[in-house]
Each structure stands twice: as structure tokens, then as C-alpha cells.
Amino acid sequence: MKFGELKKLLEENNNFIITTHVNPDADAIGSEMAVYYILKKLNKSIRIINYSETPYFLQFLDKEKKIEQYEPSHHDKLFSEKGVIIVVDMNQLSRTVKMENVLKNSSMEKVCIDHHQNPEGFENLQIIDSEYTSTGEIIYDFITQTGIVEPDYDIAVQIYSAIVTDTGSFKYNRTSSKTFRIAAELLDLGVKPHLILDKIYDENNLSKNRLLGRALNSMNLSADNKICYMEITRKDLSETGASEAELDGFVNYCLSVQGVEIGILFFELAEGLKVSFRSKGEVNVSQLAGEFGGGGHINAAGLRIYNPDSNNYKLKILESAQKYTSK
Ligand SMILES: [Mn+2]
Q1: Are residues 213 and 65 in the same domain?
Q2: At residue 199, what are phi and psi to the nearest 5 degrees?
Q3: Which of 38, 73, 93, 276 gets the highest tally of CB atoms within 10 A of its CB?
Q4: DSSP code of 51?
Q5: Do both 211 and 197 map to the same domain?
Q6: Rounded to the nearest whole angstrom, what is the distance from the C-alpha of residue 135 to the centroid of ligand 1?
Q7: CA 244 – ligand 1 centroid, Å
Q8: Is the pLDDT at 257 greater than 90, yes or no?
Q9: 20-to-29, 33, 149, 159, 259 alpha-carbon distances in Å
Q10: Same domain? 51 vs 185
Q11: How many whole angstroms from 159 Cα to the centroid of ligand 1?
Q12: Would you place residue 309 in the very low, low, confident or very high pLDDT band (cuts 50, 70, 90)?
């Protein structure tokens, strides 16, 4: 990867905007904040502007309250200045929803740091490798391989949060001995895993657990028992008082059913449908999501569609999913 070019770009420019995808997870926020701390050490001017609000269980990562929620009248002028936009943990600008146009039209230099497949190619500098567990792990390699700054506790907390969540707590199959070695180095920098995991997983609002209960209750299996799917409606959301960000990880429960190879979560958006896919082993849900305009990784992918004929759409997805299971 072009770490040398990235180092040069960060050192030679002064003005930076960092952003990430809608409904950000710990890899998205952690990667943004890790880049922020690198740039802060280099005394750069930095704005972090996201389409979505940071979910409450990730707000500990932004202890300086640097992340701003996108507001066109307030932020659009910043994108016509001279400088660099750094996009992390996504490679298709539509993942920023209403920020897509201002990003696309900006003449600022663009860098994409990511670990998803099928980049759209909006960037001037591409730091993408889908073999990585997380964007955070790429950023850690960038720091240690270029020596751009000395990694410290603040950076370590961000990278650890990114890696631990994107590996499903060191469970998914891209977790390697290298991932554990990096984790060990982060612990040497002062990271306390139990404190981070407590914040991310064990400080839920009751509403989240109630919504999880509904999601689990909605589970169904395909005729051959290889596909398990669950469904969350707007009604579930309003009656439990939970928010969309709290759905993160629910779909994984589908894979906990014996014999299931593909898990699918259908989530009713205010104006559409969000579909999350998970799979085991060689079963490629990135390709499945791709059939419907989505994308992701082999074992974790998703898509959003607006104003669909939802029931018809769900049936089509479930039917297509059959092609990907083992025969
Ligand atoms: Mn990620």
C-alpha cells in the first residue's frame, strides 16, 4: 500500500476534513479519531464531519468532542477550501448519504483508507486492502511502518476499539496472529480491553435489549435450514424506543443457529429497507448484496434501498440467497 505517499500528503498539507459512513461503527469512529490524533500531533487544522450522529456507546472515543454532524449551511463552504479529505472505512460516497454530492464536487484532494471490496474510485490516493480485519489495523500499520508519529495511549484506544469490533472480538476468520500481535502492542500502550468492551457492549440502554428480543423472536429459517433471517419494523423501533444504531451486531445471532450459513436482517427504514448479511466460511454474501446494489466483505455485507416494494424485495433476496449456500 502507498503508505509513503499518504505520509507525504499528511505532512505537506495543513487543512483536513475527515469523514466516514452513515451509522458509524467502532471501526469508523476509531479510524477517524486515530487519524485525528496523528494530525493533531502534526499540528494540522482538522475537522471531523459525519452524516450521522455518533451512537452513544461510541461517544467515549470522541472525548474531545471533535466530531460534528453534517449541516449543509454550516459545513458546505469548508469543502471548497484547499486541503485534503480523508474518507475512512468506506469506499463508495453514497455511504455518506446527503454528504455524497458535496464530497463528489469538492476539488480537495481525496484519500480513501478502507478494507471493503469494490471501491468506486473517487479518491486521488487509495489505501485499500480487503485482507485487513479493519480500517483501524491499516492505520496502525501505517503509523508503525512510516514512523509518522509515535503511537500513544489515545491512538491505541481507537485502534483497539476498531479491531476488536470488526473481528467480532477476535473471532472472525481474518483474525490472524498479526492481529493478536498488534493487540498486544496496544495493550503495552495502556489499553485495558475490559474497559473498552464494557463501554461498547455492556452499557446498553434497556431499549436495545428489548429490540434484540423482538429481533430474535422474528427469526425464521429457510426450508433447508441454511438461511436464517430476522426482521425489525418501524413499529418495533418506536415501541421499544431504540435507535437504528443499536441494531449493530443483531444479524450475527442468525449465525448462531446450528447449520445456518447465511444470516439476514431486514430493517425497515423510514423510506426504505436496510438489509444486513452475514455468512460463514466460503459463502460469499458480498456477491449476494452486490446483486441488489450493495456490497461489503465475503462474510459481512449490506445494502440500503429507498422506496422499494418491500415484501417483494425480501422474497427476491431470500430466493437469491439460496444460490450461495453449500449444496
Ligand atoms: Mn470496518
Answers
A1: no
A2: -60, -45
A3: 276
A4: S
A5: no
A6: 5
A7: 18
A8: yes
A9: 8, 11, 22, 15, 35
A10: yes
A11: 11
A12: confident
> What is the Cβ-side half-sphere exposure of residue 67, based on CA atoms within 13 angstroms?
25
251 and 304 belong to one structural domain: yes
Stated pTM of the model: 0.89
Residue 219 Cα to ligand 1 midpoint, Å, equals 26
| Overall size of the chain counted in residues | 327
CA of 161 to the centre of ligand 1 (A): 11
Number of domains in the chain: 2
Beta-carbon count within 10 A of 318 CB: 16
In this structure, the answer to whether residues 111 and 145 fall within a common structural domain is yes
Cell numbers for 21: 459512513
Q: How far is the CA of 223 from the centre of ligand 1 (A)?
A: 32
Tell me whether strands 67-69 and 45-50 are parallel, antiparallel or unpaired: parallel
CA gap 106, 85 in Å, rounded? 9
Percentage of the chain surpassing pLDDT 90? 90
Q: How far is the CA of 312 from the centre of ligand 1 (A)?
A: 30
The per-residue pLDDT for range 158-170, each reduced to its tens digit, is 999 999 999 999 9
Q: Which domain, by its residues, includes 148? A: 3-201
Beta-sheet strand order (sheet of 125-128): 67-69, 45-50, 15-19, 84-88, 109-114, 125-128
- 122 CA to middle of ligand 1, Å? 18
